[in-house]
Amino acid sequence: MKRPACSRRGHRDQRSVTPGGDVPSSYPLGPWINPRTQDTYVQNQAGPHQGQAVLQTGAPLADATAAMILVHGRGASAEDILSLTQEVGSPGWTYIAPQAASAAWYPHRFTEPEQRNEPWLSSALAVIGDLVEHVSASVHLERLILLGFSQGACLTLEFSARNARRFGGIVGLSGGLIGPDTSTRAYAGTLQGTPVFLGCSDVDPHIPAERVTHAAQVLERLGGSVTQRLYPGMGHTVNQDELDFLRGMMAAVTGAPA
Asked: Is there a domain that residue 13 lies in?
C-alpha cells in the first residue's frame, strides 16, 4: 500500500477510515451522545476551540482495550490525522481526534512567548485535557497514547509536560515544547517511565532540531523513557520508521506482538 505523505501543514489525505472501513463518528465538544456507541462526552463551552467537532473511529470507547488521541497540525483537520489509522490501526483500539477552530491550535509560531498565543493555547490544552479525562473513564491512562504532528505535536508535548503522569505513550512527530528558548520550564509531576518518541527532520523548516532535542531532555528529566530520532534531509512529513516505532509502542501497550 502506498503511504500518503504529510505535507508542510500536516495534511495526509482526504480519506479517514478505520482498517475495517468504518466512517468516523463526529460530535461537538459539548453535551453529546454518540448514537452508535452511546459514548457520552461533555466539555466546558469556553474558549475558541470549545464547541469544535471531534472525530472518533475504531472500537467503541466503552469496548476499547486501548486508546489514542491524535492532534492535527496547522491547516489540517481531525480527518487528516486520523488517516494514520489506515497504517497503524489495530483491533480493540479507539482513535479520537479533535478539530481546531480555523484549522490552527494557536496563531503564531510555537517559539513565540506563550502569551502571544493566548487564549488559543490554553483553550487547546483544555481540549486535550478534557479528552484525556473522558477517555480515562473507560480506558486506563497506561493504555492511552497521545500523538501529534507539527503544531499538534507541539501541543501534545506541552500538554504532557504540564500534566506529567504515566501514559501508555507520547508521540511527537515534528514538534517541540511551546515557548521561546528562554522560557522557564518549571514543570511538575512525573511521567513515571512513559515511553516517549520524538521524530523530526534535522533540517525541518518549521521545527529547529535543537528544539526537538530540548523537548527530549525536558521529558527525560520528567521521568519519560525518551527515544529521539532526527532524520537527515527529511521534509516536514512522517516517515516509515516513525510509523514502525508507533506500531511497536502500540503493541507494548496492549501486550500484542508487533
From this structure: no
- Nearest CA to 70 out of 229, 246, 234, 231 is that of 246
pLDDT in tens, 82-113: 999 999 999 999 999 999 999 999 999 999 99
Range of the domain at 29: 25-252
- Is the residue at 3 inside a domain? no
The whole-angstrom separation of Cα 104 and Cα 156 is 14
In a domain, residue 124? The reply is yes
* Cα(78)–Cα(213) distance, integer angstroms: 27
* Closest C-alpha among 107, 103, 86 to residue 95: 86
- How far apart are alpha carbons 167 and 175 in whole angstroms? 19
pLDDT tens digit sequence for 169-227: 999 999 999 999 877 778 999 999 999 999 999 999 999 999 999 999 999 999 999 99
123 found inside a domain:
yes
- Residue 217 makes CB contacts below 8 A (sequence gap 6+) with none
Number of domains in the chain: 1
Q: Is pTM beyond 0.70 here?
A: yes
CATH number of the domain where residue 133 is located: 3.40.50.1820
Rounded-to-integer distance, Cα 155 and Cα 102, Å: 16
Cell output for 221:
528529566
